[in-house]
Design goal:
single chain; alpha+beta; Multidrug efflux transporter AcrB transmembrane fold; Alpha-Beta Plaits; two-stranded parallel sheet; 63% helix
Length: 466
C-alpha cells in the first residue's frame, strides 16, 4: 500500500521471509534434528563417537566446515563469557546468583524510582533527534575517494551550486506549436525568475538567461529548448542553493505553485511539469512523509491488537506499545547525535528513519511478547512483586543473548563503505541493545509493577498471595 517504491517492493519480501522462517522453525528444524539425532549438536565432545568411523567423520566435517568451525569457536567463547556474566538461577527460588536476578529484585522493589530514572534518560536521549540534518544527496553517502564524488566536489568549487543539477520545467501545448504562446512562456519564465532562491532561468524566450524577442531567441539557439515536434518547451532553472538542500526542496514546491498560478498553468490547453534531480528528491520526501503518516499508526495499531489477543488485556498492550515508541525515540536521538557530532556526517539519510522504525518496532514487539508472557506466568505462581523479579531474572539471559546476536547481525552493515547503510546498521544495532538492556529489563517490568493487577484488565488474573 506504500507509495514509495522501496517500501512497496521490500514489504512483501520481508513478510514472505518471516512466513518462511516461521514454517522452518515449526516444522523443518525439529524434523532435521529428529532425523540426524546427536549429529545435530556436533562437535560437542560428548556426542562424538569414540570409534574409528566417528573420528573419520569428524575429521571430514572439520575440513569441509573449517571456516564455520573457527567462527563457532569464537562465538562459543563469547557466549560462554556472556553466560558467566548473565548467569541466571534455574532453581525455584530467586537467589543472588546473577545480574538479572538482582535487576529483577531491584525493579520489583522500587518500580517508581526505576521508571522515573529510565524515562528521564529516554527523554534526554530523544532530544538530539530535533537537530537532525536530513541528507537528500545520495553522493554524500559514497566514500570520499569515489570518482563521482570527487568530480561533484570539483564542480561545486568551480560553478554555482544550482548549475550542478538544474531543475527543469516542461510546458506542453495540446493545441500544437508551443512557440505560438511565446509571450505566455516568457511570463511564466519571468514569474519563476522572480522567486527568491532562483538564480537564473533559461528557455526558448531567454536562451542565455535574458528575455529577448522571438527572432533574437531563435538566433541565440532557442531551438534546443523546444521538442522536435514543437509541442513542448523546456525551461532550465538554476537554484541559488545546493540543489540537494532542504531549502532547495522547499523551493521546488514554490516553483510548482507559481507555475500553477500562471496564465499557462491555469489554461487546460497546457500541461506544466517540474522535474530534475531536486524535484525528484522533493517527490521522494513527499512520498516517504505520506507513507509514514499512515504506516506508523497502522503498524502500532496492529501490534496493539496482537498484544491484546495474546495477553487478553487492554492495559498492558497500551504501555507495551508506549515502550516501543519511546525506545525508538531514544535510539533515533542517540544515533543522530553520534552521526552528526562523533562521526561528523554531513547529514542523515532521510529514509533511514522509516527503516529504523520498521525494524525496531517489530523487534521490540517480539521482546515485549516474550517478557510479558513470562511475567504473567510467574505472577500467577509467586505473586506480583516476586513474580516480576523472577521473570526478569529468568528471561534476562535469553533476551541478552538474542539481543547481542541480533545487534551483531546488524553491526555487519557498519563495515560497508556506503554511509546510508552504515547509519542504518549502527542505528538498528543501537536500538536492539537499548531494547535489550534498558526497555525490556527495566522500563516494561517497572510499569507492570506500578500498575499491578490493573495490567491485566479487564481480565482477572489469579495471582499467588506472597
Amino acid at each position: 500500500f506504500a507509495s514509495f517504491g522501496s517500501f512497496k517492493s521490500l514489504g512483501p519480501m520481508l513478510a514472505m521471509a518471516i512466513v518462511v522462517v516461521l514454517i522452518s522453525g515449526l516444522f523443518v528444524i525439529p524434523a532435521v534434528i529428529a532425523l540426524i539425532g546427536r549429529w545435530a549438536f556436533w562437535p560437542n565432545n560428548n556426542l562424538i563417537p569414540e570409534d574409528g568411523a566417528g573420528k573419520v567423520i569428524a575429521l571430514i566435517l572439520s575440513i569441509i566446515f573449517l571456516p564455520l568451525l573457527v567462527a563457532s569457536i569464537i562465538i562459543s567463547l563469547v557466549l560462554r563469557t556472556v553466560g558467566k556474566v548473565f548467569r541466571k538461577n534455574d532453581g525455584s527460588q530467586n537467589t543472588n546468583n546473577g545480574v538479572w536476578d538482582r535487576a529483577g529484585r531491584l525493579v520489583s522493589s522500587k518500580p517508581r524510582v526505576i521508571f522515573t530514572i529510565t524515562m528521564v534518560g529516554i527523554v534526554l536521549a530523544t532530544l538530539p533527534a530535533w537537530s537532525m540534518k536530513p541528507s537528500y544527496n545520495f553522493l554524500d553517502g559514497f566514500p570520499d575517494d569515489t570518482e563521482s564524488k570527487v568530480g561533484y566536489a570539483l564542480l561545486s568549487s568551480a560553478f554555482p551550486p544550482g548549475q550542478l543539477a538544474p531543475s527543469e520545467m516542461l510546458v506542453e501545448s495540446k493545441k500544437g506549436n508551443i512557440m505560438e504562446s511565446y509571450q505566455n512562456l516568457e511570463n511564466l519564465a519571468n514569474q519563476v525568475a522572480l522567486i527568491d532562491g532562483v538564480s537564473t532561468v533559461t528557455g526558448p524566450t531567454r536562451p542565455i538567461g535574458i528575455p529577448v524577442t522571438m527572432p533574437e531567441a531563435l538566433a541565440q539557439g532557442a531551438g534546443r529548448f523546444i521538442s522536435p515536434d514543437g509541442s513542448t518547451a523546456r525551461l532550465e532553472i538554476s537554484l541559488a542553493d545546493d540543489p540537494y538542500s532542504s531549502r532547495a526542496l522547499e523551493l521546488i514546491n514554490t516553483v510548482r505553485t507559481a507555475a500553477a498560478a500562471s496564465s499557462i498553468g491555469m489554461d487546460n490547453n497546457y500541461q506544466v511539469l517540474v522535474g530534475g534531480a531536486t524535484a525528484l528528491q522533493t517527490d521522494t520526501k513527499a512520498s516517504i512523509d505520506s507513507d509514514i503518516s499512515w504506516l506508523a499508526p497502522v503498524s502500532l495499531l496492529a501490534i496493539f491488537l496482537v498484544l491484546v489477543l495474546l495477553l487478553k488485556s487492554l492495559v498492558a498492550p497500551l504501555y507495551l506499545v508506549f515502550s516501543v515508541i519511546v525506545s525508538f525515540g531514544a535510539t533515533f536521538g542517540i544515533a543522530i547525535f553520534i552521526f552528526q557530532n562523533v562521526f561528523s556526517h554531513t547529514g542523515v539519510a532521510y529514509s533511514n528513519g522509516v527503516w529504523m522504525f520498521i525494524f525496531l518496532v517489530a523487534l521490540g514487539a517480539d521482546y515485549n511478547i516474550f517478557v510479558m508472557s513470562r511475567i504473567r506466568e510467574a505472577v500467577k505462581a509467586e505473586g506480583m512483586q516476586a513474580g516480576i523479579a523472577t521473570a526478569v531474572g529468568r528471561t534476562g539471559g535469553v533476551i541478552t543473548s538474542a539481543g547481542i546476536i541480533l545487534a551483531g547481525t546488524f553491526a555487519v552493515l557498519t563495515t560497508l563503505p556506503l554511509r546510508d547503510l552504515f547509519q542504518l546498521g549502527f542505528a538498528v544495532m543501537l536500538g536492539v541493545l537499548i531494547d535489550t538492556f534498558i526497555v525490556r529489563a527495566f522500563l516494561v517490568p517497572s510499569m507492570t509493577a506500578i500498575l499491578g493487577k490493573w495490567s491485566w484488565w479487564p481480565r482477572r488474573e489469579e495471582t499467588a498471595i506472597k
